[in-house]
Amino acid sequence: MTSILNVEGLTKHFGGLAAVEDFDLYVKKGEILSLIGPNGAGKTTTFNLITRLELPTRGRITFKGESLTELRPHEIVERGIARTFQMTRVFRKMTLLENVAVAQHLTIRPNLWSTLVSPSERKREKEGRKKAEEMLQFVNLFPKRNELAANLSLGEQKRLELAIALSMDPELLLLDEPVAGMNPKETEEIIDLIRIIREKGITVLLIEHDMKMVMGISERIIVLNYGRKIAEGLPEEVSQNPIVLEAYLGRRHQ
Amino acid sequence: MRLPLKILVNLLILVGLIYLPWTIKNPYFLHIIIVSGIFVLLASSLNLITGYTGRLNLGHAAFYGIGAYSSTLLVMRLGISVWLAMPMAGLITVFFGVLIGIPCLKLKGSYLAITTLAFGEITRLAMINLVPLTNGPLGIRGIPGPPPIIFWNSTLVSFESKTSYYYLLLALCLVCLLIVRRLLNSQIGKTFLAIREDEVRAGTVGIDTTQIKIMNFALAAFFAGIAGSFYAHYVRFVSPDSFTLNETFTILTMVVVGGLGTFYGPIAGGVIFTFLPEFLRAIAEYRMMIYGLMMSVAIIFMPEGIVGILQSWIPWRSQKDSKPESTQ
What we know:
The complex is a heterodimer.
Chain A: E1 3-14, E2 17-28, E3 32-36, H1 43-50, E4 58-63, E5 66-67, H2 73-79, E6 81-83, H3 96-102, H4 105-108, H5 112-117, H6 119-138, H7 154-167, E7 172-176, H8 184-199, E8 203-207, H9 211-217, E9 220-225, E10 228-233, H10 235-240, H11 242-249
Parallel strand pairs in A: 3-8, 3-9, 6-7, 7-8
Antiparallel strand pairs in A: 1-2, 1-4, 4-5, 9-10
Chain B: H1 2-23, H2 27-52, H3 60-78, H4 82-101, H5 109-129, H6 131-134, E1 140-141, E2 149-151, E3 154-157, H7 162-185, H8 187-197, H9 199-204, H10 209-235, E4 237-238, H11 245-259, H12 265-279, H13 287-301, H14 305-313
Antiparallel strand pairs in B: 1-4, 2-3
């Protein structure tokens, strides 16, 4: 299988702190790859670097052979990478429907002139709205479509994040702790959704702390600690790896 | 049932607005109505920036002034017809809107406010000091009005009466507000809101925030420029005193107290705050103080202004209904 995302020597320093250090990563088409590690290991920073919310200090990021570091955030989306946020960042004073519909921007591609005069633009907007409704149905939020996003519970906001990201028809989906703070039932729902997403052929790069979920759903796992990769492999390999256990649980007192 | 009702209500309002000048005997009262129309345009255009993309612009009077002066100069120096000068003044204002919009791209909150404030002051000082062009603090008088509209050898409208100006402004307001309305209901309107809510996040859903923010400034500048052009040819006199910081704050008060980020807010605000000073002549010195107080009260107690409160009283218009998308 070919890899669609390649990260080589990725480094990000915040002042004297190395958030990510010389990190290599590849994501194969169609897989679910999990990025785990203790708090502050550099996982979210890696996502921010891939989606160009931050610029790397060093290193290369390529998606299907094209370098991403020169692009702007909306161009990354255009290439087929969508993400969710750990601390949800939905548009709070917009309705759920507007939240997802606004993400249809690259399909609608409005300009001033077409907005004012073109009937086909209205048609595209209508289609965008329909797509948004479908996505809200998919994540089971359709009944609340006209509520403001600020009124949603955390679990619902995370599902809305998922709907927004999916509505952009990404090839690669970056999920940043999609089940953090959720109860077991909500977690189960999200896992089912991710399985369906994967069956659609969407590649998933996942950050998660819920080990049961990570072990159950991932094909491969990469472990980060203090910004460096300390282990990589199949779930069962990683869970047996003494270095990983040490990173999570600490060293046995001699 | 609701859609035909809406059309009926809009039609009634339109008929009322067309009939309005005939009910008014006092020309000064008609003048105040016309001025309120200019401010409806200005407040609506400022609302595009401050209400919808959430970026405080304290240089709006500069756009208004640039529109007024450029239209004046186009007509008086180059002999261009007022009908052509009006849209051209709008476009010249767009040029300046983009010019100030680009350095403001990365600025937010008070930094943006201060930069736009400076832009407003620079523009005013330029009007005072570019004497060969603007005649300095004395201003320019004797600006011609629009030439009469002649149809089949007979004069339809001659622009000698206030009534004819009223109709011209009514037409301008209708066109501009319809454009604003359509924009706000469109995908572009949603991107404005997304930028207001979380600009970085807007980029991650595929929005070119740079492009949208410049477009937003350009649009607002265009409508303010048109308002300025109309003002110049209506009052027939422009001077730097008409485009001061006080003017910007008045427009801002209209937007905030009327209803920030609502379509009807600046319309209500524009009318209310043009008429209010007429009734408050006795305490005219305290005008800006009262405005400041009202703005503070509005921001704290009624974030969607007068219009927001009115809408919450109307039983069939819930809060969600006041969202732009449902007006389609």
